[in-house]
Amino acid sequence: MKIAQIAPLYEAVPPKLYGGTERIVAYLSDALSDLGHDVTLFASAEAETRATLVPVRDQAIRLDPAPLKSDLAAHLAMLHEVRRRAHGFDVLHFHVDLIHFPMFEDIADRTVTTLHGRLDLKDLPNAYWRWPMFPLVSISDHQRRPLRFARWLGTVQHGIPASLLPFSARPDGYLAFLGRISPEKRPDRAIAIAKRVGIPLKLAAKVDPADRNYFANEIRPLLDDPLIEYIGEINDADKGAFLGNALALLFPIDWPEPFGLVMIEAMACGTPVVAWPCGAVPEVIEDGITGRIVDTEDAAVAAVADVAGFDRRRIRHVFERRFSAEVMANNYVSLYQQLIHSGDADRVRTA
């Protein structure tokens, strides 16, 4: 198949530091290419990919030092280029929310749109009622609940390359928190758990501008404890050791997480996860096998001791079976084929 992958322009593909959507686009593009498909990636120029790259911006918006820039203009320019080349693809796979809808209405049946974010936002239902013709893919079944009426083609869970993060059989004696410092990610809860169990906690986390006050007022005062170490953002080269050497990953979220990529990154290393049952967590974690799902701090404290005895090799095997990039790519290929065959049937009926 000839497949176009259309990435957001906010981060590099894959991101140099924090970033989820662009990371998945990178892994998917490479995995589809490895399966023998003709893949073209529309992204910023520094993308690293085995697909054919069409650079539509000189660099990712976040990495651009220009003080003034327009993300809307950058994405519209990219979509114009995608539209200009659209005739050359069997499938156009968008990862840019719904900004492309007005420009691709007439060929919606050749598009797939993966929605990577939360969907319980006020203005979304009206927009999806307005453009019901676009086939959508969710990254968890829970994610799609606010838009049950939409044209869901399927759910495809995220995957990462099997060789990206090494398996670690013998962890060091610390807990890990990886992600963003924000109220919904609950680093404060992770810190409280670590203090109660008396095990060091390392936080490798990004602080967005919108969360700087939260970090300064709520989290920084908690970092004085000798058990707590704030590392800041880390890159992929450091992520394997960080997660693999941890006794467990703490994922104490307090929001409807659409997927939670860090959970499968930990699983790739053999590291169990202690997580709250929000959003997609029960779809990702197999309770008692790859981690424990808890809903109170007391339960989390007990779970830390429990997961320390889990079979890390078994966790890695679950990752390979469910969450490799190859598994993700094959699941998308099935949806692409379903879409193409449906289009062929429609053309026969109208001939």
UniProtKB/TrEMBL annotation:
One protein family per Pfam: Glycos_transf_1
InterPro entries according to UniProt: Glyco_trans_1 (IPR001296), Glyco_trans_4-like_N (IPR028098)
Which parts of the sequence belong to the Glycosyltransferase subfamily 4-like N-terminal domain? Answer: 18-131
- Glycosyl transferase family domain residues are 173-303
This protein is called what? Glycosyltransferase involved in cell wall biosynthesis
